[in-house]
Amino acid sequence: MDSSPRNKPKSLSTNLFFIFFLLSTNFLTFFLSSILNSSSCYLINPPGITIPTTTTASVSVSEGDSASVPSEFLAFTSGQNLPFGFNTNFDSDTIYPPVGRACTLFPDELRRYMSYKVNASCPDDELLAQKLLLKGCEPLPRRRCRAVGPSHYIEPYPLPKSLWTTPPDSSLVWTAYTCKNYTCLINRKHTQKGFDDCKDCFDLQGVEKIRWTQKKGNGGLDFSIDEVLATKKPGTIRIGLDIGGGVATFAVRMMERNITIVTTSMNLNGPFNNFIASRGVVPLYISISQRLPFFDNTLDIVHSMHVLSNWIPTTLLHFLMFDIYRVLRPGGLFWLDHFFCVGAQLEDVYVPLIESVGFNKLKWVVGRKLDRGPELREMYLSALLEKPFLDA
What we know:
It is found in: Endomembrane system; Membrane. Helix content is 28%, strand content 17%.
């Protein structure tokens, strides 16, 4: 080893450099671990999305695109410490309010929806909220503002009058809809061109008045409610769900038979949820994409007319069918009412899909769907399926 005096300064400077480097890396490691281990510094987010819990944040939505996330969204979604510490029900000392994973994928709409004055009135933005929900931002984040209400609200008609009476126009806010009163909604099947969801639903004295009351000569596709109930012991069908139930006439018919039905419905260019509530039955404002908000093996019957059809992506439909199976009790009924598809889709895709779920077939009727012309080769399936008492 060379120990000459001229090499000592170089050796000393090298040692000081390594000491400085070691201290720096230790400090950096400590700093990063403090951030990553803090339960209050970061939200739980979709892969690739990191949102600090500050009043302004940047979220990576897609490659090369970023936007500021509103402080109210962060205030709602951030983890909140439980007042009494660790709770065995949560298996945690922190609660994270649920919000749809896709919310942060649409930052412009999210910013508009979550920008408002706290403790004041909410913006009149029903259309914006529904678009976010349909895109997968479901459930929507809660907001700390008062929802817009009608300025001249009139209390609903009493039961049983409310079941078959159109409510006053002043009972809701019409901003989000093409029609601005119920007369327009009732007449739109005659006056309005183009497609609208359930165009004739609001006319309670039209088709709704006879729907599901009798078996019609439509090739056996139209089951009546009494025909379906007759497949079970009297009184054993008590509670259930109607998926995409329009203005809830199915629920009203069942209510007249002392059966409680909750109806899911969206407000697709019409105040479906308000109208359902005005009739005296319960609306549930969720899309077909959301997990059904019921516990396993609890419902006696699930019904859906037209909504469950080939417009739904096949994998999503498969998940939905199994979710229906989940919430039905053993022996419960799934009434698939006028499922439609095209040509060979029924045998090639949908029959195997439905059969894979494991229902028993009580009724199974296939017929032609001709309302848009025979050249489209559209088909209907009406089926009454039963959840078996014992799984295979």
